[in-house]
Design a protein that fits this description.
Cofactor (chains A, B): thiamine diphosphate
Largest interface: A-B, 133 and 135 residues
Keywords (chains A, B): Lyase, Thiamine pyrophosphate
GO molecular function, one term (chains A, B): magnesium ion binding
Number of helices of chain A: 25
Distance between the termini of chain A: 60 Å
Shape of chain A: elongated
CATH class of the largest domain in chain A: Alpha Beta
Structural class of chain A: alpha/beta
Oligomer: homodimer
Protein name (chains A, B): Probable phosphoketolase
Number of strands of chain A: 22
Enzyme class (chains A, B): lyase
């Protein structure tokens, strides 16, 4: 090392500049060649990992899987980052954005020793190499992506588009961390990636870490050139400057250029970049930074599949889309190709890189940083190691008074906001709230008593900039993709957080949820992965209160989407008032390795349970509202009225109240479900009720009228094995809705109280015929309510017009309506 | 009009430049003031639409809904486009990207006369105005977005992010069309919008139309400033130049600037832009265009809520996020606010704008173009009017030979590709294929015999640019959002197309599908909306053949997502071989107003039906494979083996074959479902079987073992009302999978032939006990198969190892395995 680090300034210190020493250049090149050799070996070889004998068909895997194209570039960056980490003492993680970067990331982790520490049979022997190669993309082995199995990875690169969002999520609240994020030029075409560049308007240079985006232009996707590789370089520079970065370019390896020359340019450019970063961090630290800095980013242009055969069967391979996957697909099938593979492997001069024992020689591993400075071993990338439990204020202290069922009104999410405010206060460095410009709309504004919205674009000296600040616990950008990606990155590096969204538009991140759920499922099966905090959704502005925004805002299907994933990672809760929401969310913020979906209302609505009752109810997840039913002890009910969700609960209680007054002899049981997974069988979901418990609640033979928040068939799908299923009748959202009033919404979908009463009359044997006049009265009440709301554009003002009352807990109307947010 | 149009050059002609005449300026300002007045009226007024008497509480809507913030900007652009259309004879449609732009778009359609032509009670009288105002965001009325109800709209603006993609989709193959796309600065933060700017690399200046993006910077979202409004102007210019555009700026209306000055700048700038467009189009027409042009785009910076009260209750309103929705929420509640609303409305000087009869005066409507040149009346925006049936080659001519069931192998999508090639050949201007870089991977490469991939970034003179051309029928970009958005825009303007995608990653557009399905559902109920071509998905590279790519690529849940939407717009097909795929797709390309989801395999796999059989089977959508079963005429079967999907069909047929040989006395019925919606009840879905038909196929009391392509519970959700449901046992994908072999995938999920046989043995009463040894043999076969595949990394090479054969249609193994794409 020929430059001195100013140790007193820490890893961000600027360094005295000098030429790259020949020794370091040798080390860079040796690391890179070794990583490339190991990558090719993984893709092709079953045996003979060090080419101790001439390569034959039997040494080659029968199915050749994997992606060579991106790998030499990933390895190149890895080697150079290692040098910088060693010289500057950087604390760095590496995000491999391009798809199928697995072989490279595994090769580098093997080279720096981490891989063997974790998987001890993959050791530094010839047999270890054989195992390393064989397991790749092999049944029972490891995937072709930088998956949970890959040390140092927080990003899979299976579905593309989220590398930069993950990188920024990792950088928040990690002021000493450098996140190197390699963005593939294919990936760069995705929408989520295209907006993720703007994350720099949200990063605080003082209290957050640094993201170094490395746009890897290797020119091709699966079968096409990439857009960003096919625009003039100056246009690409303008794009990056327009995104707010200072672009640096390293281009090389074309037309047979000696890689050593490219190493020299890369090392010099990386030093320039890191010095520039050091300047920014220093200015941020001493308060002299003037506004948002133009952080450096690197454009690395190298041939696709760099160092593979230039030509195969007369077609170009290197620097062509043909190098995207397996450039020699017939390596096993023809002698010529087997020979070509041998030549390709030998081009890395493995005899210089591995000793007789099969271990990489010291030159090949010289650039490995020490211990946890190795990017593969950095605990940040196994975030559970760093996760600290949140200091949670006692949610019971935030309870709302409920003198009687329905005896007070609250905006549930607003009450939750008060608790979240104090969660923020007590956890100033490891808890964040993410949302697509809806945190206030979702009524969480109390949090702004404790924090601000983090923002690093321009500030204007006007009141609209209230609660905007360079550092804050809330991050808002109008991109669900960004919010989700940031949160995932934040959680995967050991912190906690929630995302709040309108219920309908959370579908925008359906596929991101899929990938995170799959990551969690796999991580849970990997012993060295330590549990991370759960990903918590707070979905408000839900389907029943989007009457004012119309059909485009009405969709409760995210729950359906979520429950398709493995039962051991997904949880769905439907708290129906302020106290049940508090209790639910306290539980969620304590949990690990789950995705918790919580749907809750934000409008003023009745409270039904005291905090003690709420805790008991939420602990069970399902239970009877005996105060609302008309059961007689020791007798089975005539009918069960069940609800899940705040509006269904309101309507079921209203229906129960009507029945109590008008058909007092009817034995009605009222059931409420907060934890939706309780409905599933216990052998399907860990929260599932046993059949005995289920039958005790729902009976095996009585009609069950179930009012559900979402699509009604989901309840059938969860319960089809239950004994009483044939008697189950579910009401829910059936895709009817427009711009109208809240009560019209429930009527359009037959979920309203009157319809529920009619359902009971029609399903309890003989009752409908006996109560014909009453049934007609309910029909008329529906029509009157509908006419009222349609003529006046108002919600139903007082329930007294269609009055009812009961001895216990009189039910009042929800006359608060929707609002306009 | 003070400038002459060169009529011979058509609408794209450059115009002699001159000052805006005072007369035209008056017309612009009058149109704009009238549109603003009509917009405010819609948001607030129930009655007294022309302020004939002082405004009182009773004139104001009880619930104030809608979004003022974006509206004056939309109206401003509309007025100026009208001038340009009239002066140049442009053929233009208007896309309102910002959310909740409904009142403005409706106001303009009313002003140009279209609204009254379509909705004749909303006429040009005071009563018509009253109705116009009242219906907005009112029960039974119209939504707050530019919804299907809005004349001239092909874009709702409920969920944000797709305006530019829709615009480019509309422009493809419409060489004479100018699509003016207003992009909100909130919307611009979304991922899909951020990548949609790059659509210019795919537009052909000669054969496609022109998109003019108008980035409307009004500074605020719901509760936050927008990113693009808070970066330096030069940075924003660089971003737009980096995206490949020539940015123009119009900024005005701040600090009380006279709008007339802004009109003058806007008119001059728009003329500059249109002249620049004319130059590009002329160069493209005469072949002198050098590469991709830097198309103009406009940055329009105006105050949010421009012209509303400057201040309300001491808080700024205009130019503030407070103007986002309803700036005077208490207009009905306090006299002061009622008065303020009156002042606001009067600020537009309605007495100058409306006559005594309530009709707008000639000055106010002078800029309305004629007839179909009105943007609200342009048939392009009611695309069904222009839709022409495709000239479809007879799909039977593309049939593969099937000498016996399983007697030949095909790659189903490859065969489809041959037919699609000729669909393209016969429909060179109104059919396109969109895909995220997967068209070749999905085996549709035959289409490149007839066309190219349209591309307008750089071409390199190398072989990797094969099939790239400035004009072509295939559009590929690595963004499912872009593909879907382009296709939607293309269909909504009267053309035909398909999107092909990997099955797992189509979840990326879940939410876009939602919005399109909702659009279709609503459009079908609107008499003047003419049916458009169906949106056709071709999902290949499906869950069972993503063994090589691993868990991140395995997800069959899009079907679950789709079937939550209205039955009258969604169709799901699972053709299981080449001939059934051909028959299915011919049906899809003939249909209108649906979303057709077709899941099909791309790997070499057995063909089961001749074309005649396939047509008959697909016409029914469900049917018996009597050649595979062992039924005896006149007797009920002992068990039903049902399949939906290609891999389930293969495994079911293999299981049936094993049973035929090993338990010849067992009466097995084999059922196959191509049209998944046949399973639903006829009262739920128009394709649903009657209970009688369903029972005739599945029996009411015999065990049914159903092997399904996707998540097994979906089959339960579709059939829970059927009589035989309790005897239904479904196997499918239960989220188990990794990087392995194809056969290991089915084993991991218990869908393999051996497990299906065991399921039969266990479910036919007494059979399992009787056939204990055979059952054990099947268990052993599973273990052997698993061990084989895991040890060798190969799929099972020959079924003969676990041999079976039948008299009719011997079933061979699927030994083709997955491939590497």
């Amino acid at each position: 090392m020929n430059a001195e680090t100013d140790a007193s300034a820490g890893p961000w210190a600027r360094r005295a500049r000098s030429e790259l020493s020949p020794e370091t250049l040798d080390q860079l090149d040796a690391w890179w060649r070794t990583a490339n050799y190991l990558s090719v070996g993984q893709i092709y070889l079953l045996d003979n990992p060090l080419l101790r004998t001439p390569l034959t068909r039997d040494h080659i895997k029968p199915r050749l899987l994997g992606h060579w194209g991106t790998t030499p570039g990933l390895n190149f960056v890895y080697a150079h980052l290692n040098r910088a980490i060693r010289e500057r003492g950087l604390n760095t993680i590496y995000i491999a954005g391009p798809g199928h970067g697995g072989p490279g990331m595994v090769a580098n982790a093997y080279l720096d020793g981490t891989y063997t520490e974790i998987y001890n049979t993959i050791d530094r022997t010839e047999d270890g190499l054989r195992r390393l190669f064989r397991q790749f993309s092999f049944p029972g082995g490891i995937p072709s992506h930088a998956a949970p199995e890959t040390p140092g990875s927080i990003h899979e690169g299976g579905e593309l588009g989220y590398s930069l969002s993950h990188a920024y999520g990792a950088a928040f609240d990690n002021p000493g961390l450098l996140v190197a994020a390699v963005v593939g030029d294919g990936e760069a075409e995705t929408g989520p990636l295209a907006t993720a560049w703007h994350s720099n308007k949200f990063l605080d240079p003082a209290q957050d870490g640094v993201v170094l985006p490395i746009l890897h232009l290797n020119g091709y996707k699966i079968a096409n050139p990439t857009v960003l590789a096919r625009i003039p370089e100056e246009e690409l520079f303008e794009l990056m400057r327009g995104y707010g970065y200072t672009p640096y370019l390293v281009s090389g390896g074309f037309d047979g250029e000696d890689p050593r020359a490219v190493h020299e340019r890369m090392a010099a450019t990386l030093d320039d970049i890191l010095d520039r970063i050091a300047d920014i961090k220093a200015a941020a630290a001493d308060g002299t930074l003037d506004g948002r800095p133009a952080w450096p980013m690197l454009i690395l242009r190298t041939p696709k599949g760099w160092t593979c055969p230039k030509e195969i069967d007369g077609h170009p391979a290197e620097n062509n889309w043909r190098a995207h996957q397996v450039p020699l697909p017939d390596a096993r099938d023809t002698e010529a190709h087997t020979h070509l593979l041998q030549e390709w492997l030998e081009s890395y001069r493995p005899d210089e890189l591995f000793g007789d024992d099969g271990a990489p020689v010291p030159l090949a591993t010289a650039l490995a940083p020490d211990g946890e400075r190795r990017m593969s071993a950095n605990p940040v990338a196994n975030g559970g190691l760093l996760r600290k439990d949140l200091r949670l204020p006692d949610f019971r202290d935030y309870a709302v008074e409920v003198p009687s069922p329905g005896g007070s009104d609250s905006e549930a999410t607003k009450v939750l906001g008060e608790w979240l405010r104090d969660v923020i206060r007590d956890n100033p460095h490891n808890f964040r709230i993410f949302g697509p410009d809806e945190t206030a709309s979702n009524r969480l504004s109390a949090v702004f008593e404790a924090t601000d919205k983090q923002w690093n674009a321009e500030f204007w000296p006007i009141d609209s900039d209230n609660h905007l600040a360079r550092a804050g616990r809330v991050l808002e950008v109008l991109s669900e993709h960004q919010c989700q990606g940031w949160l995932e990155g934040y959680l995967l590096t050991g912190r906690h957080g929630i995302i709040n969204s309108y219920e309908a538009f959370v579908h925008i991140v359906d596929s991101m949820f899929n990938q995170h759920a799959k990551w969690l499922k796999t991580s849970r099966r990997i012993p060295w992965r330590v549990p991370i905090a759960s990903l918590n959704y707070l979905l408000s502005s839900h389907v029943w209160r989007q009457d004012h925004n119309g059909a485009s805002h009405q969709d409760p299907g995210f729950i359906d989407h979520v429950v398709n994933k493995k039962a051991d990672v997904v949880r769905v809760y439907l708290p129906f008032d302020a106290n049940t929401l508090l209790s639910t969310y306290d539980h969620c913020l304590r949990s690990v390795d789950y995705v918790n979906v919580v749907v809750a209302g934000k409008q003023l609505a009745p409270n039904w349970l005291t905090m003690d009752q709420a805790v008991e109810h939420c602990t069970r997840g399902i239970g009877l509202f005996d105060w609302a039913g008309t059961e007689v002890e020791g007798e089975e009910p005539d009918v069960v009225l069940a609800a899940a969700g705040d509006i269904p609960t309101l309507e079921v209680l209203a229906a129960a109240s009507i029945l109590r007054e008008r058909v007092p002899s009817l034995r009605v049981r009222v059931v409420n479900v907060v934890d939706l997974m309780r409905l599933q069988s216990e052998d399907v979901h860990p929260h599932g009720l046993s059949d005995r418990e289920y039958d005790a609640i729902f009976t095996t033979d009585k009609p069950v009228i179930f009012a559900y928040h979402g699509y009604p068939w989901l309840i059938h799908r969860l319960t089809y094995h239950r004994a009483g299923h044939d008697n189950l009748h579910v009401r829910g959202y059936k895709e009817e809705g427009t711009t109208t009033t809240p009560f019209d919404m429930v009527m359009l979908n037959d979920l309203d109280r009157y319809h529920l009463v009619i359902d009971v009359l029609d399903r309890v044997p003989g009752l409908g015929a006996r109560e014909g006049a009453f049934r007609q009265e309910m029909q008329d009440a529906r029509q009157r309510a509908r006419a009222y709301t349609r003529e006046r554009g108002e919600d139903i003002p007082e329930v007294a017009e269609w009055s009812w009352s009961g001895e216990k807990g009189a039910v009042r109307s929800d006359d608060t309506g929707g609002d306009n947010a």
